[in-house]
Give the backbone structure.
Amino acid sequence: MKKLVLAAALTAAASTAFAGNMEEPVMEAPVVVEETAASSSAAGVWIPLVVLAIIAAAVAAD
């Protein structure tokens, strides 16, 4: 009985050693995250300047 249990244990241990295949592992490319740089620091100034120019033109037209 002990030989049967020992044979079963060795068979189970040997079968797990050959799990898988001999194919090369597939490596995924690393994800690279780049921060986008602002085009200029004065980008948010244009809209208020345009609004001021429209208001100035409306006031000058009266």
User: Anything to note?
Assistant: The CA atoms of residues 18 and 24 lie 15 Å apart. The mean pLDDT is 78. The longest helix spans residues 2-17.
